[in-house]
Each structure stands twice: as structure tokens, then as C-alpha cells.
Specification:
heterodimer; A: about 290 residues; Neuraminidase; 4-stranded antiparallel sheet; 1 helix; B: alpha/beta; Alkaline Phosphatase, subunit A; 10-stranded mixed sheet; two-stranded antiparallel sheet
Amino acid sequence: MKRVLSGVVGLLMACWWLAGIAVAAEPQQITNDGRLKQDPVFTGRGEQIVYSAQDESPQLVLRRLNLDDSRNERLRPDSTLPEFRPCYSSDQNVFSFLQMTGNDVLQLKVELPLQQRTLSIPASKKTVSHGTITPDGQEVVYSAAGQIYSQAIDKGETKQLTQTVGRNNHPSVSPDGHRIAFSSSRDGDYEIYTMNRDGSDLRRLTDSRGLDIRPAWSADGQWLAFTTARHGDYEIYAMRFDGSDAQRLTHNPERDDYASWHPDGERLVVVTERGGATDLVLVAFEP
Amino acid sequence: MLEVGRLNARNCNGIDRRAFLQASFALPLSLGLDRVGRASDVARAKSVILLWLWGGPSHIDTFDPKPEAPTEVRGPFAPIATRIPGVQFSELFPRLAMRSHLFSVLRTNVNLNNAHDIAGSIALTGGVGRSGNADYGPNLGSIVQRVRAQSSDLPMFTSIAPGKPTTAAGDLKAFGGGRWGTAYDPFYIRCDDRGKIDLPALKLLDGLTIDRLADRRRLQNEIDKVARSGGHAAQESWNENCVRAYRLLTSTDGRRTFDLSLEPQRMRGQYGRTMFGQSCLLARRLVEAGVPYIQVNWSKWVENIYDGRTDFGWDTHWLNFEHLTDRHGPILDRALSALLDDLHDRGLLDSTLVVAMGEFGRTPKISANGGRDHWPNCYSSLWAGGGIQPRRVVGESDRGGYEPATDPITPAATAATILELAGVRSAQLAALRVLPGGSLIERLVS
């Protein structure tokens, strides 16, 4: 009898635990058109999300979604060029995105509304693969041809931060501006690393079979979300800034990718594929 | 959703001469042209689906990874196991890796040129033109169209594509009939990521709507008017073609074939809500309807980075690894896996040849730009169904993926194998004076 009772209790506890996981992992869908999407970021205090999405012509456009009234509109409706990977400085005064301008020409455009000017980085006809703005809005950090660079917005000085074999990509600057998280294949497949703003003090944070890419800092700088293929398809994980306490945030047999933190640190926006449709969802995070 | 658009004609009651000529060139259904014998009754593939990966996928980052190669060759992707012992794919293709019991992989394709338009023409015809590069033979689909007997109102050679394949430097030459003329060009169908279908060849009459198309008697009167107004052979041919093309839409079966909304949402999702995914689903519906040759084009433009025209081809000189991670890998993995599953589940895979290939591979050594450039010396293609023995890897590339370590597979052999399985015999090719010297890739079929 005692054994049966303990079995029932154990079963109930397991059900409660599984139910807890199911509730915690249930994402909140915030778009429903099903078209390809990527690169969502929260803006301001988290009331809007800017992302890039499949369109007719051009085929990749920036869109802005208001979370309170679900209004969804093109961010730059007059643009005729493919645009993606939006990024804002902490004070929202500097905005950057990638723009295709010609055959094999992809530039980081940095809009400085207060100065009423737009920079193109690099100025030469080279192709940037990923770009981000430092929280203070003073520099851009970008990857090009497999290496990571930083460039002061005002002075235009460029520093090469990595010089290794393999690909170095997806740079993301910590909220305090001191560290850069990025993915690199220098040791095999893509793993997550961090380094100082000047490229020093390299630390490897992940060691898994399969790609680990697109690190994204939480607003308090304590956590990094990233995409991993360690389970086969793409899933979202979060780990502490030193690589410890890795947690799986999505449990979806299809693709989950492009995680970005809400300023409150309690949820992330993720691009998810469900039933072949690609949409944005909010995923809760409890450390 | 089926949409018939507008065009350059004056109005719906008459077809002006310009529109008439456009239509006669646009519609490939040429019953009036002589056929060269009948295809063999033992054709193993009643239908062929060629997934045309325009731009040239990297073989190393797809189906021939080189994990032991130096960093500057192997790239950042981990290899994953397939269901074929000892055979690995790039980690970008987990679904296909799980389905490797359904297909075989060729790893020693070679091409004769490293320019997209020329290499693409060679790959789609099996060889260079009679008088050099400027005179290409007909597309393999055009040959099938000419040899196989018409069995329905549906076009024999259909291309599901956002437009005629092109590059910043010029159009792909051998997209259709070539020296045989436009009558053997493919019947183009556009299918977007939401499954919206557009038939450019039927944009003949201003204000034409699907409801008006349904009025067959009125439509026939319109066509009869055109036939009476002219009288020469071209007009008669056009008339016949036009009747057939319109019948496609006015018949219940024809309209249903193109209507992806009739598919369960779950099935549409399986293929992915992408242009390529929905195009693959449409290809399966065309197979069910009896269309013998279907070419699904990945993109109109070869370039992966371009201006507002880009639709993300496989030409990844820059951002090879980024675009394969973000778009190309997941989209192809999902769509092709769904197509194979779907054909298999419906009992159609044995009678449908599915080939996925581009015009060449990409350089094993990563370029200074962080991408991979054109590489016709050695690349991969994927083959399934229609007489193909599955679970095989045919050919072996060298340690770095630079050259074939075993016998190279030429475009002529690739073309000959597709045509042979589609029931086109060498005697028929000889009579048509196309594809001399191509031989069956025995290890794929025996």
C-alpha cells in the first residue's frame, strides 16, 4: 500500500512538473501571417518590435509591430532595396540596418537622426554580414568576410578585433559596452565566445556538436540567448554570461531562431516555425 | 488562389495582333508539330521533377562535407550522420539526412564552364550547342515534351518559376526549346510563398477574370473569332494552343490542379510557407495530373545579394555561410524532404524522378570575401524515385572536394540518365540530333 501510495504521489509530482514545463514553455504568438521573418528586436521600453520579413518587391523589408494594438507596418515604406538586421542604440538615437544596394554589395546603414545623416559602412563596396551598434551609440561592431571589426561612428577609425581561421560572426555588444559576444568556427563548428571591446580576453562559452550562433545579451548583461542545432533543428537556449547554467527555452520540432530579449529580461521574442509557417512568438524566461 | 492577370490586348472582345503574337510564342503546347516516335512504354519515370538550384550550391556545405579538411575548406558547419552508413551531410540538412533511404547522392558531377548562363545551359541540355556556346540544344523538358505523347490538357513541360532564369550578366540561354523554337519553351507558372498562382501565358485579355474564363462557350467564341480573322498556320497553331491553355483553366480538373488552397493546411505547412516550398507542392500536384516534366526554379535571379530584384539565388560569393544558415539550408531541407515524403506516401515516388542540382558547385577554399566562388570541377546532386536505386552515394570527391576521386559524371551523362528514365531512347535522341554521347549513370539505376 505504501509503495502504491508513493507511486501515485510520484506520478502526480511528475505530472505537475511536466505541466509546469508545458505552461512555462508555451509561447505567445504575436504575428500570424506565416511569412519568412528574421532579426526581431524590441525598441524603447519594449512596446514595439522591429524585424525583417518576406515581402513582394523588394523581398525583404523592415517592419514595425506595436505590441499594444498589434498594428504592423513597414518601417521604411519608400525603400526599394532589401533591408534586414535592424539594431538600435540604448537611447534609440542611432539606428542601423543592412541594405543590399547592388550585385554583391551589402552595406551597414547607420542613421543618425539627431545629426540628420546616414553613414554607409564600409564605405568601400564590400559586404557586411552582420552589424550592431554599441549601447552608447558611439561605435558600430560588424562582421565582414569572416572577421569582426569595430568602427567609431564619428571618427571613422576601423579596428579589426579578430584575426583567426574560421568564421567570426553575429557580434553582440553587452549592455555595459565592455564585452562582445559572437559566434566563431575557429575551433571547428560554430561556438559562442566573448571578448573585450578591443578583442582581448577571449573566452569560449559553448562546446556542443552543431552550430551555436546569434548570441543576444539580456538587458542586465547576465544572460546570453543563442540559437543552437545541438538537438538537430534550431532551438533557443540561454546561458549565463560566463557560459554556465545553460537552459533550453524552446521545445519545438521545427525551427526556433533569432532570439532577442525584452528589456524586462523576463521574455524574449523568437522567430518560430510551426506547421511550416514562420511567425514571431514571445517566450517566457525564468532563470 | 488562382489569378489571371492583365495584359496588353485592347479589350476582352478582341485580341490585337501584338497580343496574338505574344501568345503564340508564350504558349508551348504545340500539337501541330511532328513527334519523333513514341517514348518507350517502359519509362520508369512517368514524371520528372527537376529542382533547379540556380546559382550553384556549395557541395561541401550541403551533401559532401569535408570535416577533415583544413579550416579554410571545411567551413563552419558540423557534419551529421545520414541513414546511409558512413555518409554525412552538412548539419543544415537534418530532415534530408533522416530521409537518405529515399534517395541517392552523386558526388562527382562536373560541368564544362564556370559562368552561370553557360554552365546552366549545359546542365539543362546536356552539352554545348552545335556551333559553340551560342547555339544550345533544347532543354531536357523540351525533349520530353517532343517525344512523349500528350496525355492530357496540361502542359507537357512546365516550369514553376518566378520568371525566366537570369543573371546580372544576362539570361540563361537554355531555359526552353532553344533552336527548336519557342513552341518548346516551358509553360511558366508563378507560385509565391502564400501559394498564389499566376499563369503569365494566360494574361491575354484585359479584364479577364477566372469567372469569365469559366464561361467556356463565350471563350470558345472569342477564340473562333481569332481563328477566322487570320488563317495561316501559325494562327491555327495558336488557336489550338490557346484552346488547350484556356481549357486548362476552364476545366474543373485543370483549375483544381493549380489550386493549392485545396490542399490541407497541414500538407501546405509540411513543404514550408516559402516560394520554393509551395512550388514543390504544386509540382506534386502536377505529377498527379500527369505532367511529364516539371522544372521548379529556386529563384529568378542567380545572385544572392543584389538590389531590389534579388530573390536570393545560390550564387553565394559573399555571405555563403550566412545565407545558407538563414534561408537556403532550412528552406531546401524542408521542401525537398516534404516532397519526397509526399510522393512516397502517395505511392508516386517509384514513378517520379526527382533531381536536385545546380549548374555547378562552389570553391572548396573559402574566398577572401568570406564566401565561395564558382566551381564546376566537382559538385553534388541528389536523385530519387523513378528508377533510381536509393541509399547510394555515387562517386567520391577528393579530400578537399576539389576534384572527383572517381569517374566524373558529365552533364551529358546526367541528361542522358534523366531522359532514359523518362522514357526517351537513344534512337529518338539521335533522330532529333540532340545529346550525342550521353550515357546512363549505371550505378544510379542498377
